[in-house]
UniProtKB/TrEMBL annotation:
Belongs to the UDP-glucose/GDP-mannose dehydrogenase family. InterPro entries: 6-PGluconate_DH-like_C_sf (IPR008927), NAD(P)-bd_dom_sf (IPR036291), UDP-Glc/GDP-Man (IPR017476), UDP-Glc/GDP-Man_DH_C (IPR014027), UDP-Glc/GDP-Man_DH_C_sf (IPR036220), UDP-Glc/GDP-Man_DH_dimer (IPR014026), UDP-Glc/GDP-Man_DH_N (IPR001732), UDPglc_DH_euk (IPR028356). Keywords: NAD, Oxidoreductase. It comes from the Eukaryota. It is an enzyme of class 1 (oxidoreductase). The keyword Cell membrane does not apply. GO terms for biological process: glycosaminoglycan biosynthetic process; UDP-glucuronate biosynthetic process. Gene3D superfamilies: Cytochrome c1, transmembrane anchor, C-terminal (1.20.5.100), NAD(P)-binding Rossmann-like Domain (3.40.50.720). It catalyses: UDP-alpha-D-glucose + 2 NAD(+) + H2O = UDP-alpha-D-glucuronate + 2 NADH + 3 H(+). The active site is at 291 (nucleophile). This is UDP-glucose 6-dehydrogenase.
Length: 499
C-alpha cells in the first residue's frame, strides 16, 4: 500500500522540502528492526535506514539469517530490503541525511552509583543524542522508541538544543507496544499508536508528521496524541499493569495448590467478568522478557525520587511475587525428589522467555536453572531457538549485564560444566530423573511422552511451568506431574514446598 499523497505532502511540508522522506533508526534490535521493517513495507515512498554500532548485527540483518527470530519478520524484510529498507553501520551519515530519527538503543538498569539496581542507565541514549547534535545540518524530528524513564525527553531535548548550532529539533515519544513472538501482527494491527510531543505549534506539527506516517495503515482513532510525559509514563504503566496481572494470578496459584482449587478454573471464572477480561491470566513459572522487570524497577525508582515510597512498594511487590514464583517452582522440584537433586539429571524443555522467540532476556529459565545448579543438579537443556552459547552466557552473566550492546558486554566466564545443551528433546530427557517445562513451545505438546518415560529414571517427574501438558495422559503413562496452581499429585501433597 502506498503512502497517501495527502500524507506525503503533509510530511514533506513539515520538513519544507519536496524530496523523499528519510527515516533513520538508531538501534537494530528487537524493537528497531521489526518496527522499521513494517514502516518500510507500509510506506514504500519513505526510505528507512536502520543503523547500529554492532557490525555483526547489521551483517545479520543483511543476510539470510536474521539476528532475531520472529514469525513473519523474514517475509517483511525480504519484501523491502534493498528497495526502501536498508541496514547500515554508517551511523553518522544516515543520521545526518534523515528527516526523522527514531532512537531505539539499549537502556540498561544501572548496576553502580545513584539508583543502582533500579534506575535506567541512559549512557547509550545520551551518546546517540550527542551524535545527532554533532552531525545534523538540518531540522529533525527525534523520536524516542525505546522505553525510557519519564522526563527523558526533556533531558534529550537539553542535550540537542545546547549543541544545536541553530538547528530545530522536535522530540517525540512514540513508545512501542509490540510483544515478541507476535511483533509483526502487533505492528500491522496495533491496539494503539501513542505519540507524545510538546504542546507548542512546532511540537504539534511534529506529532502530525509522525501521525501521518502511521495513518497509512493504522485507523486514525487508534492513533493517540498526548503530552510527552503522558506518553513516556503510559508505556511504563502498561507494562507494570500487565505484569501485575501475571503476579496476581501467580499469587493465586500458590493458594490454589494449598487449598485444592485449580488456577485455570479460577482464572477462567474471573476472566468472564467483562471488567477483567481473559488476557494475561495464565499462571506460569514467572514472567520474563526485557521489559516487565526493568520497567517496574524504573517506575519504583521514579516513585522513590518523587517522595512516594508507598507507591514504590506497591509496584515492588509485583517483582517480589515473580521471584517467589520461580523459587517456589525450584523448591517443588527439589522437595519432590527426596529433597535433593544433587548429581541427578534434570531436563529443561524451553529456555526462551516465551514461545515463538529466541530471546532469553530475564527468562525465568535462568533463575530456575541457577536454583537447580545451586542444589548440584546436572541439567540438560533443549530449546528450539536458543543456542548453547547464549545459554552459557545467560547462566554465567551478572544480573542486568545482558542489556548492553553485545560487543560491550563483559566477556563470558568459563562455561558452566554441569550444563549441557542439545538440539533434541529426546536426547535432553534421556536418562533424566525429571523434566521441567519452562517455555510453552507448541512442539512440546506433541512429543512422544511414552518414549520419553521409557528412557527416564524412575520415578519419572514432569514439572509443567506453563500448564501446557495433558496431565491425565502423563499420569496414565506413569509420570509424577506437578502443574502450577493445580490440585497436587498425591506424591507432592506431603512434601513441604514453602519458598
Ligand atoms: C511486553 C508487553 O506485552 C509489550 O506490550 C511491551 O511492548 C513489551 O513487553 P513481551 O515482553 O515481548 O511484551 O512479552 P509478553 O507477551 O508481554 O510476555 C511477557 C512474559 O509474561 C513472558 O515471560 C510470558 O511467558 C509471561 N506471561 C504472559 C505469563 O506468564 N502469563 C500470561 O498470562 C502472559
Ligand atoms: P530492544 O529490545 O529495545 O530493541 P536491543 O538491545 O535488542 O533492544 O537493541 C538495541 C540496539 O541498539 C543494539 O543492537 C545496540 O548495538 C544498538 N546501539 C546501542 N547504542 C547505539 C548507538 N549509540 N548507535 C547505534 N546503535 C546503538
Amino acid at each position: 500500500m502506498a503512502t497517501p499523497a495527502s500524507a506525503r505532502t503533509k510530511i514533506a511540508c513539515y520538513i519544507k522540502r519536496e524530496k523523499m522522506v528519510k527515516i533513520c533508526c538508531i538501534g537494530a534490535g528487537y524493537v528497531g528492526g521489526p518496527t522499521m521493517a513494517v514502516i518500510a513495507l507500509k510506506c514504500p515512498s519513505i526510505e528507512v535506514v536502520v543503523v547500529d554500532i554492532s557490525i555483526a548485527r547489521i551483517a545479520a540483518w543483511n543476510s539470510e539469517q536474521l539476528p532475531i527470530y520472529e514469525p513473519g519478520l523474514e517475509d517483511v524484510v525480504k519484501q523491502c530490503r534493498g528497495r526502501n529498507l536498508f541496514f547500515s553501520t554508517e551511523v553518522e551519515k544516515h543520521i545526518s541525511e534523515a528527516d526523522i530519527i527514531f532512537v531505539s538503543v539499549n537502556t540498561p538498569t544501572k548496576t553502580q552509583g545513584l539508583g543502582a539496581g533500579k534506575a535506567a542507565n541512559l549512557t547509550y541514549w545520551e551518546s546517540a543524542a550527542r551524535m545527532i547534535a554533532d552531525v545534523s545540518k538540518s531540522d529533525k524530528i527525534v523520536v524516542e522508541k525505546s522505553t525510557v524513564p519519564v522526563k527523558t525527553a526533556e533531558a534529550i531535548e537539553k542535550i540537542l538544543n545546547h549543541n544545536s548550532n541553530g538547528i530545530n529539533f522536535q522530540i517525540l515519544s512514540n513508545p512501542e507496544f509490540l510483544a515478541e513472538g507476535t511483533a509483526i501482527q502487533d505492528l500491522f494491527k496495533p491496539d494503539r499508536v501513542l505519540i507524545g510531543g510538546r504542546e507548542t505549534p512546532e511540537g504539534q506539527k511534529a506529532i502530525k508528521a509522525l501521525r501521518d506516517i502511521y495513518a497509512t495503515w493504522v485507523p486514525e482513532d487508534r492513533i493517540i496524541a498526548t503530552n510527552l510525559w503522558s506518553a513516556e509514563l503510559s508505556k511504563l504503566a502498561a507494562n507494570a499493569i500487565l505484569a501485575q496481572r501475571i503476579s496476581s494470578i501467580n499469587a493465586m496459584s500458590a493458594l490454589c495448590e494449598a487449598t485444592g482449587a485449580d488456577v485455570t478454573e479460577v482464572a477462567y471464572a474471573v476472566s468472564k467478568d467483562s471488567r477483567i477480561g481473559p488476557k494475561f491470566l495464565n499462571a506460569s513459572v514467572g514472567f520474563g522478557g526485557s521489559c516487565f522487570q526493568k520497567d517496574i524497577l524504573n517506575l519504583v525508582y521514579i516513585c522513590e525520587c518523587n517522595g512516594l515510597p508507598e507507591v514504590a512498594n506497591y509496584w515492588k511487590q509485583v517483582i517480589k511475587i515473580n521471584d517467589y514464583q520461580k523459587t517456589r517452582f525450584v523448591n517443588r522440584v527439589v522437595a519432590s525428589m527426596f529433597n535433593t537433586v544433587s548429581g541427578k539429571k534434570i531436563a529443561i524443555l524451553g529456555f526462551a522467555f516465551k514461545k515463538d522467540t529466541g530471546d532469553t532476556r530475564e527468562t525465568p529459565a535462568i533463575d530456575v536453572c541457577k536454583g537447580l545448579l545451586g542444589d548440584k543438579a546436572n541439567i540438560s537443556i533443549y530449546d528450539p531457538q536458543v543456542t548453547e552459547e547464549q545459554i552459557q552466557r545467560d547462566l554465567s552473566m551478572n544480573k542486568f549485564d545482558w542489556d548492553h550492546p553485545i560487543h560491550l558486554q563483559p566477556m563470558s566466564p568459563t562455561a558452566v560444566k554441569e550444563v549441557t545443551v542439545t538440539w533434541d528433546a529426546y536426547q535432553a530427557t534421556n536418562g533424566a530423573h525429571g523434566i521441567c517445562i519452562l517455555t510453552e513451545w507448541d512442539e512440546f505438546k506433541a512429543l512422544d511422552y511414552q518414549k520419553i518415560y521409557d528412557n527416564m529414571q524412575k520415578p519419572a517427574f514432569i514439572y509443567d511451568g506453563r500448564n501446557i501438558m495433558d496431565v491425565e495422559k502423563l499420569r496414565k503413562i506413569g509420570f509424577i506431574v506437578y502443574s502450577i496452581g493445580k490440585p497436587l499429585d498425591a506424591w507432592l501433597k506431603d512434601m513441604p514446598a514453602v519458598a
